[in-house]
C-alpha cells in the first residue's frame, strides 16, 4: 500500500474567482501581505502495489484533472513501502514526487 | 417518417423531461436514453440535457463524459450524428472532448438564473439553421459553472473558423450580457461539421408561451428543435 497525493490547480492563465474571493477575505480578516491565492483540489489515494506510476498519471490526467484547464502533480508519500515503479525511496520519509508538475 | 431524438438521463439530470417535451413539440419522437446503457436505440440525434450529472462532485460533466451512453454518443457524433448539449450537456461534451475548452465557475461566483439575450453567430449547424445570422433571441440561462474558457489556440481556431455559435449580448433588461465572464462572450460553440452544438442557456425552456421567458422571447428556443427535426426528417425520408 502507498499513500498518493494528487494536487490539482486551475492553470495560471485562467481566472480563479474563488482564489480572488479568499484573497479579498484575507485582507478583510487582518492577514496583510498576501498577494495571490489560487484554490485547488487535494486528493489522497491509498493504492496497492499493483498501481504503477503510469497508472497514477493516467488516472490523474483522465479523471482527477481536466488537462484543458488544470495543472496537477502526483506525489507518492510512501515509496519505501515497495510501491511498483516508484523512482527511488525517500530515505528521510519526506514526501517524494514521483513526477513533475504536469502543465499540458 | 418521424425523426427519433434521444434524450439522455444521467443520475442527477434535471431537464430531460423538458428536453423531451421540446422534441415532441417540434414534431419528433423523444427516445429516453439511460446513462448506463450503451445502445443508442437507433435514434437520429441526441440531446444531452441540463442538470448535475452524478452530482458534478468532481467537475461538472466529468463523470458523465465517461458513462457508457456517452461513449456511444461520442462514436456516433464522430460519425456525423447530430448532438445538442445544453448546460450540463455542454459541460459533458467538453469533458468528452467532442468540443474544445471547458466550463468553469462563474467569474462572479454566483449561480445565475435569468432570461438572457443571445446573438446567433453561426447558422451552419443543424441546430441553428432555423435562425438568421445575427438574429437575437431570448433564452433562459441557469448555472454556476457557465464560464466558457479555452486555450488560446483553441479560441483562435473557434473564432477563425466561425465555430462560435451563440454569444451573450448586452442589450438586456438588466443592461448586461456576459454574466459568466465567458471568454469572448461565448454562450455556445459548434463542431466544424456543424453536427454538434454545445450551449449553456436552455432552449428547451423557451418552446411554449406559457412557460417561456417573460422578456419578449417566449418561444425563441423552439427553432433549434424544429430545424433539427426538419433536417432529420429530410434525411430519414431521403
Key attributes of the depicted protein:
heterodimer, A: 104 residues, alpha+beta, Mth169, Chain: A, 4-stranded antiparallel beta sheet, B: 238 residues, alpha/beta, Rossmann fold, 9-stranded mixed beta sheet, two-stranded antiparallel sheet, 5 helices, 24% strand, globular
Per-chain topology:
The complex is a heterodimer of chains A (104) and B (238).
Chain A lengths: L1 E9 L6 H12 L11 E8 L5 H12 L5 E7 L19 E2 L7
Antiparallel strand pairs in A: 1-2, 1-3, 3-4
Chain B lengths: L3 E6 L6 H10 L3 E6 L10 E4 L19 H11 L4 E4 L1 H8 L6 E3 L7 E9 L15 E8 L3 E3 L2 H9 L3 E5 L17 E5 L5 E4 L22 H16 L1
Parallel strand pairs in B: 1-2, 1-3, 3-4, 4-11
Antiparallel strand pairs in B: 5-8, 6-7, 6-9, 9-10, 10-11
InterPro entries (chain B): Class_I_gatase-like (IPR029062), PRibForGlyAmidine_synth_PurQ (IPR010075)
Catalytic activity (chain B): L-glutamine + H2O = L-glutamate + NH4(+); N(2)-formyl-N(1)-(5-phospho-beta-D-ribosyl)glycinamide + L-glutamine + ATP + H2O = 2-formamido-N(1)-(5-O-phospho-beta-D-ribosyl)acetamidine + L-glutamate + ADP + phosphate + H(+)
Pathway (chain B): Purine metabolism; IMP biosynthesis via de novo pathway; 5-amino-1-(5-phospho-D-ribosyl)imidazole from N(2)-formyl-N(1)-(5-phospho-D-ribosyl)glycinamide: step 1/2
What's the short version?
With 104 residues, chain A is an alpha+beta fold. Helix content of chain A is 23%, strand content 25%. The two termini of chain A are 29 Å apart.
What does this structure look like?
The complex is a heterodimer of chains A (104) and B (238). Chain A has 104 residues and is of the alpha+beta class. Chain A is built from 2 helices and 4 strands, in the order βαβαββ. Chain A has a 4-stranded antiparallel sheet, with helices on one face. The radius of gyration of chain A is 16 Å and the shape is elongated. With 238 residues, chain B is of the alpha/beta class. Chain B has a single domain, classed as Rossmann fold. Chain B is built from 5 helices and 11 strands; from the N terminus they run E-H-E-E-H-E-H-E-E-E-E-H-E-E-E-H. In chain B, the strands form 2 sheets. A 9-stranded mixed sheet of chain B has the order 2-1-3-4-11-10-9-6-7, sandwiched between helices. Chain B has a two-stranded antiparallel ribbon with strand order 5-8. In chain B, strand 1 (4-9), helix 1 and strand 2 (29-34) form a beta-alpha-beta unit. Chain B is globular and about 45 Å long. Chain B starts with a strand and ends with a helix. The mean pLDDT of chain B is 94. Classes of the chains: A alpha+beta (104), B alpha/beta (238). The interface between A and B is medium-sized, with 11 and 20 residues.
